[in-house]
Amino acid sequence: MLKKIAGLLAVLVLAVVAVYYFSPERLAHLAVSAERANAGLSRHEMAVNGIRVVYLDGGQGEPLLLIHGFGADKDNFTRVALYLTTRYRVLIPDLPGFGESGLAPDGDYSIATQVQRMHAFVQALGLKTVHIGGNSMGGEISAVYAAQYPTETGSLWLLAPAGVATAPKSELVQRLEAGGSNPLIAANADEFAAIFHFVMSDPPFVPRRILDVMGRTAIAHHDLNQHIFEQIRSAPGIEAQVKGLTVPTRIVWGEQDRALNVGGAKVLEGLMPKASALILPGVGHLPMLERPREVGEDYLAFRLSIS
């Protein structure tokens, strides 16, 4: 009996090794699917303003719309969603131009236009009010959304949001102003691997062959990402739009964020009367990936405090 079990284990190990070396795409797909299923999320798609939008949907309760950052996709929120779908209906779209969603025919990926697309997405789902949150570029989109539709926004969750123009300059901003290359845009596999260490202080381990699979789309979209980055970089700061906004807001920022300076949290707290902030030591630009449980539980406590 023990020999049979040992033999089965050996076959299983060999099968995993074979898939890893000869079909890493399949292994990556299985890993993503497993994380989604574990969080109670399923994949859906619809047309929004003539653009295909792919999104994850799961859980029951008040709707929570989560918006990913630049160069990312909907699965950036899968791990933290595990702690949220027990209380809320969680909706996580790929923004047009990212992930599995379609491209904008007019090439417009500005913050203002993406806000309008997300509002159309919410309306297409038949929702009148949503709680909204986002990371980086997605945080900027979320903040502008709440400012434009305050009566349709239950609360706002900002995870290292972009767009705080008066914050101290981050390492990313200083690099770009000095004429350096953009560490968020990859032209090859090594540059994509380097992104992980730039945006996260403590990145989770990802086998290199799986990382290469993840990077293929980003590398193929190098020129598109350059185009999108220039559009969002030219957007005005969000300070004037969120000043005095009374939508309950929770700000979460990693103390070691190299992409966007953590000082932005203090700026926003000073502008928004119902905002509070959590600063996470040893965490970089993606707190929901680096500390999913802590970030998820903090959000649940925030929602309880405003209910």
Question: How is this fold's topology laid out?
Answer:
Blueprint: H1 2-22, H2 24-38, E1 42-48, E2 51-58, E3 63-67, H3 78-81, E4 89-93, H4 111-124, E5 130-136, H5 137-148, E6 153-161, H6 171-177, H7 189-199, H8 208-220, H9 222-233, H10 239-242, E7 249-254, H11 264-271, E8 275-280, H12 287-290, H13 292-306
Parallel strand pairs: 3-4, 3-5, 5-6, 6-7, 7-8
Antiparallel strand pairs: 1-2, 2-4
Helix pairs in contact: 1-2, 2-8, 4-5
Give the count of structural domains. Answer: 2
CATH architecture of the largest domain: 3-Layer(aba) Sandwich
Going by helix content, strand content and strand pairing, the class is alpha/beta
Give the N-terminus to C-terminus distance in angstroms: 57 Å
Supply Rg: 20 Å
User: The biggest beta sheet, please?
Assistant: 8 strands, mixed
CATH homology superfamily of the largest domain: Alpha/Beta hydrolase fold, catalytic domain
CATH C-level class of the largest domain is Alpha Beta
Give me the strand/helix succession: HHEEEHEHEHEHHHHHEHEHH
Q: Provide the low-confidence segments as ranges.
A: 1-22
Described by the principal axes of the CA atoms, the overall outline is: globular
Fraction in beta strands: 15-25%
Count of helices? 13
The strand line-up of the biggest sheet is: 1-2-4-3-5-6-7-8
The chain-level mean pLDDT equals: 92
Q: Could you name the CATH topology of the largest domain?
A: Rossmann fold
Overall number of strands: 8
The percentage helix is 40-55%
